[in-house]
């Protein structure tokens, strides 16, 4: 079974989770606005209208609420979900706040008891054996449980874990992720990173052909490590597919400038863009169409 094609325009989830890299106050305001998950579904409907094919969604504690609201909207039946997992800090924070018993309660509430028991058993054995790959597989089973009823074109290894593996030289984790996501979930494996050149080199050394990488890429050089020039040079090799994120640099640059910049790199054809108003969604769709030749988005009126 071939994975679903990647959408050119994917809606980002930061605003729904109250994340704003420039202003904590603005992030808190967004979090209050989207306290009702039905508001998230309404933005997704608008995004679908203007050509977004899906939502990039980290496995935040509220992810299940968002997914339930999306499933309840008939107009979002074909709206795809792009999981960005595993959100390790969720487990660390839960064990710190509630202890191991609180963590176990959360694990068992995430899905059917028999599936969770099997997952926990595998993870527990893995912990005793210090088998990182089995731990990762167990975490993926847990994290993807709420997403199973949605079309999943790609599943991304969260940059927090991907960059940890990169820093430690655990390249076997990348091969394992690639095989696991393709075989078990019939989706494209993706790799998040905050260091695009190093990740591209590591994936190439791992033997992965034309891997899918999600990384910051913007005219402002926002979070582009080790430098904007190095990231641009990596993209120009064409050795991987880039899902560009943070192209608006958290609103610090004008959208026109943002899209004019990415248009200089014809191999970049897929974008995660955060927007929560109809005006901004319409503007992004128009700029994608005007600046990016060959990128087709499906605008539904």
How would you characterize this protein structure?
This protein is an alpha/beta fold. The protein has helices at residues 24-33, 37-49, 63-71, 88-109, 113-129, 132-144, 159-168, 171-185, 196-205, 228-236, 255-262, 278-291; strands at residues 9-11, 54-58, 80-85, 154-157, 188-192, 212-216, 241-245, 270-273. It has an 8-stranded parallel beta barrel, surrounded by 6 helices. Helix 9 (196-205) links the parallel strand 5 and strand 6 (212-216). Helix 11 packs parallel to helix 12 (278-291). It is globular.
Helix content class: 40-55%
Approximate shape: globular
How many individual domains? Answer: 2
Major sheet summary line:
8 strands, parallel, barrel
Number of strands: 8
Proportion of strand residues = 5-15%
- CATH fold category name of the largest domain: TIM Barrel
The number of helical runs is 12
Give the rounded overall mean pLDDT: 83
- CATH homologous superfamily name of the largest domain? NADP-dependent oxidoreductase domain
**Gyration radius, in Å:** 19 Å
Structural class: alpha/beta
CATH architecture of the largest domain: Alpha-Beta Barrel
N-C termini distance: 32 Å
Query: What is the N-to-C succession of helices and strands?
Result: EHHEHEHHHEHHEHEHEHEH
- The main sheet orders its strands as 1-2-3-4-5-6-7-8
Q: What are the segments in which pLDDT stays under 50 over at least 5 consecutive residues?
A: 110-117
CATH first level of the largest domain: which class?
Alpha Beta
């Amino acid at each position: 079974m071939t994975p679903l094609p990647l959408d050119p325009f994917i809606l980002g989830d930061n605003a729904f989770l109250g994340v704003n890299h420039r202003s904590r106050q603005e992030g808190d305001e967004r979090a209050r606005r989207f306290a009702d998950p039905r508001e998230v579904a309404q933005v997704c409907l608008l995004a679908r209208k203007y050509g977004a094919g899906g939502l990039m969604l980290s496995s935040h504690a509220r992810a299940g609420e968002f997914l339930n609201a999306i499933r309840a909207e008939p107009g979002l039946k074909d709206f795809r979900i792009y999981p960005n997992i595993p959100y390790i800090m969720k487990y660390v924070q839960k064990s710190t706040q509630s202890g191991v018993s609180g963590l176990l309660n959360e694990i068992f509430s995430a899905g059917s008891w028999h599936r969770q028991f099997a997952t926990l058993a595998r993870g527990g054995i893995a912990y005793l054996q210090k088998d990182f790959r089995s731990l990762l597989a167990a975490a993926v089973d847990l994290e993807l449980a709420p997403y199973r009823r949605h079309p999943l074109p790609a599943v991304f290894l969260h940059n927090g874990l991907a960059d940890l593996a990169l820093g430690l030289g655990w390249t076997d984790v990348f091969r394992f992720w690639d095989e696991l996501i393709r075989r078990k979930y019939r989706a494209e494996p993706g790799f998040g990173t905050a260091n695009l050149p190093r990740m591209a080199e590591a994936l190439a050394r791992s033997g992965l052909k034309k891997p899918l990488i999600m990384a910051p890429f913007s005219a402002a050089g926002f979070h582009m490590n080790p430098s904007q020039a190095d990231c641009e040079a990596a993209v120009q090799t064409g050795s991987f597919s880039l899902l560009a994120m943070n192209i608006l640099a958290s609103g610090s640059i004008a959208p026109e400038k943002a899209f004019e910049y990415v248009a200089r790199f014809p191999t970049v054809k897929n974008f995660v863009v955060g927007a929560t108003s109809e005006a901004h969604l319409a503007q992004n769709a128009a700029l994608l169409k005007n600046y990016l030749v060959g990128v087709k988005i499906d605008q539904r009126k």
